[in-house]
Amino acid sequence: MGKVTIIDFWASWCKPCRLENPNVVALYSEFHSKGLNIVGVSLDEDITKWKEAIKKDNITWTQLSNLKGWKDPIAEQYNISQIPTTILLDANGNIVAKDLRGEALKAKVAELLAIK
To answer: pLDDT tens-digit profile of 20-43?
Structure first.
């Protein structure tokens, strides 16, 4: 486990999710070696479209999907009612932020990793 983990709820059919993916890819590229982990949880139901989106968007971190859409047990556990949703966990697994995107997410990750 790293110092910081993002749980990223998304789906291949979600346009705002797909528009945010390049920001998350850049964040992962910049901070993974410094302790950032990301786990993607997809609310897809079509495995082919899900895998195509992962490849097209250059997502390299762990991806999970039960292919159950909104009935995904992980999404239900976290009470996910919209996507994209990000949940930011500290090194102890505590939720420290939710629904940050772009620069706000980058700033919080840098703060948690103590990067100036």
So the answer is: 999 999 999 999 999 999 999 999
